[in-house]
Amino acid sequence: MSPAPVEALSPHDFGLVQMADAEFLLYQVLVERLTGIHLAPIKKAMLSGRLAKRLRDRSIANYGEYLRLIGDGGDAEERQLAIDLITTNETYFFREPKHFDAVRDVLLPQLGRQPVRIWSAACASGEESYSLAMVLADRLEQGVVWEVIGSDISSRVLSMARRGLYPMERAHHIPPEYLKRFCLRGTGDYMGSLLIDKGLRQKVRFMPVNLIAPLPEMGRYDAVFLRNVIIYFDAETKRRVVNAVAATLKPGGWLVVGHSESLIGIPSDLEPILPTIYRKRA
């Protein structure tokens, strides 16, 4: 998951009243409690725009009434829909490419022929997970067992990820040899789309995970990509999430964060080895 603002519809497009400042404060509390994401005051227009369609679809006249619907004791299914709308999932294939270069050129040679597991911990619609899978499929020797796990808080984007079908414009950063080997060009109704090859899709497993809740039992990983998500947490939530995720690493495993993020000041058994890449001490 990578929360970030996108162009929002205006509530006036749906005949709704404006979200009051007091209502926004209550949404701030709810969203932070459910997702760990702090919505700054400048995000009020974004929030109201994203929720406007749900208010219209449910014939709800104002944001206070909708808040009661998705709050404690309310409609759990609608609450998940609201979370899906609020948590933006901006991503693309091979975003911040030096991280994938490091996996290919540094991490994988160190691992040799042992089974390899990598977790994409805020995978959004799956581009990061499939990018990792392409690198592993290309570089690991025949017979080496490997898998990629992708997780996100949004059930909507996980459904997209499992399908592995993307607009062709998302292909711009995929290396040409990977594009030819691991992607199929859509035809007919799917013209203008690319589909991740079935063999690669079968090596990637997607599951819902809320990073601020206790993590499910997921085994241990050689690397975890936790990119472009902790920047939206406050310091205490960031510390808890990083320590919980780091606990899933094998000794010597890597934690990779986004280039706009830092682990400075977070107590853990991690040491920096490359820009925004940390290794778990043995």
From TrEMBL:
A single GO molecular function term of this UniProt record: methyltransferase activity
Annotated keywords: Methyltransferase, S-adenosyl-L-methionine, Transferase
Reaction(s) catalysed by this chain's protein: L-glutamyl-[protein] + S-adenosyl-L-methionine = [protein]-L-glutamate 5-O-methyl ester + S-adenosyl-L-homocysteine
Enzyme Commission number: 2.1.1.80
Record carries keyword DNA repair: no
SMART domains: MeTrc (SM00138)
InterPro entries found in the cross-reference section: Bact_Chemotaxis_MeTrfase, Chemotaxis_MeTrfase_CheR, CheR_C, CheR_MeTrfase, CheR_N, CheR_N_sf, SAM-dependent_MTases_sf
Role according to the record: Methylation of the membrane-bound methyl-accepting chemotaxis proteins (MCP) to form gamma-glutamyl methyl ester residues in MCP.
Descriptive protein name: Chemotaxis protein methyltransferase
Species per Swiss-Prot/TrEMBL record: Chitinimonas prasina
Lineage of origin: Bacteria, Pseudomonadati, Pseudomonadota, Betaproteobacteria, Neisseriales
